[in-house]
Amino acid sequence: MHTAWIAWGVLAAALAVALAALVRTRWLQSHTLTKCVLLSVLLHAVLAAVCAFVGGWAPASWGTGGGERMTMLVVASDEPSDDLSLGDAAAPVPDEELPHEPDATPQEPTAPAATLAADAEAPAAPQDLVPLLDAPAEAATEPPASTTATATADSTAAADATRSSTPARAVPDTYADRVGDRRAAAAAARGGSRATEEAVQAALAWLAAAQSADGRWNAARHGGGVERAVQGQHRNGAGARSDHGVTGLALLAFLGAGNTHLEGPYAETVSRGLRFLVDRQRGDGSLQGDAEFFAALYCHGMATIALGECVAMTGDAAWKPALERAVRHTLAMQHPHTGGWRYAAGDRGDTSQLGWQVMVLLTARNAGLQGFEGAENGARRYLQGVSSGAAGGLAAYRPGERASVAMTAEALTCRLFLGLPADHPTVTEALDLIDRSPPVSSAPNAYTWYYATLASFHAGGPQWDRWNARLQAALLPLQHRGGGALDGSWDPDPVWGGHGGRVYATALSAMTLEVYYRHLPMHRRAERVAAAP
User: How far from chain centre, in Å, is Cα 14?
Assistant: First the structure.
């Protein structure tokens, strides 16, 4: 008997070591659900065998006929229950990654409600986080990739809208400079040029030609998912299945130049892209598509922003139910204590993810949705946790890590969108770091340049003028021009470009050069650029 106990103990220890080794070597980072199921079945089989050996293969009551007398003692107690379990089901675990700052130790997905149930500090979900429609009665944990009935209805209704439809309300001020002659006037007044506008139009032409027949932009077909082991970290070709993310970015480039599904030279391109996203919306509201774990929430955020901007610019109510479900998913993925977002609900957050989800909230407001005060306060709380520097203007990827230019720029963009005044010392300190890291053609980084451009533009002042001049000198020569299949596109940069591919690089670069009119500058919110004569 003692020998058997030793044998079982050695076996259990060996299994524990093997499981730890698998987790340590990131074996679980691909096909996570399948591998977790296999490990669970194996672990339960071993436990069942141990219990059977210790307690016998049959319960002691079997075969007794139930003839023995049984005495039951019932004790009543006035003490309250210590049960802190929550009734909500755990949120679905998404699947892999778009560009972000390096993460040497990616976290495994956690089930948010179950994990946080034992945390005495866990607050109830604030009631002010509910958008316009009631949440679906039941969300599928592993929804199929095929079209849901609700999403199909939304898409069909939107597709029936005519190009001549009158928007339900005026274009919000923040997007007004994208349209017509205002775009040229805004570009001229805020630092753009004929060269930047020609680059944008060439990029849109390439993106339109690169769109697939079903409305998507295929990441893998255009170089997405190429593993480059950025900063020594292998991500197993992350980005190859991020079609929803790069489709969202491509749509944002078209929307940024005034194209919607109702008007503009690329109206049909935008319409097909939006239908692709909404037709494949998951039961829980996610627009992640088939993206793997690390990319899922990035893809959802990018696609949701595109959908939100379309609703905001046109007032088309046909798309609003899908937008509300998507925004609800963003709210559900926010950590209730730190206020951050990362890969799965219950993750404590990272600054790279935060930027896209904060933009989701901002866009939803512009589209007429309400009730995000709690989520926005949570985002501010998260930013405090990653801040450093004398004025708190520097920011890291995660708390306790070293500040970087990319994360400082993204954090500053979030702070400005969340209402921080442009003359605040925090802004000044962040701009100083950005100013000391100007863009150069020999070291392209589309992600860093995009957020640094947004932050500098919305803060305004002399630093913006310097950054803008350097940006144009660095970015414009990198665009393919002069004809050929790549004309108008940008090569993927050597940092995160391999994960997103050519569509990612081209859309993000075009959005960077649209900065002059994509949004009204945060530092001059009352400014209105008059239409050119």
Answer: 39
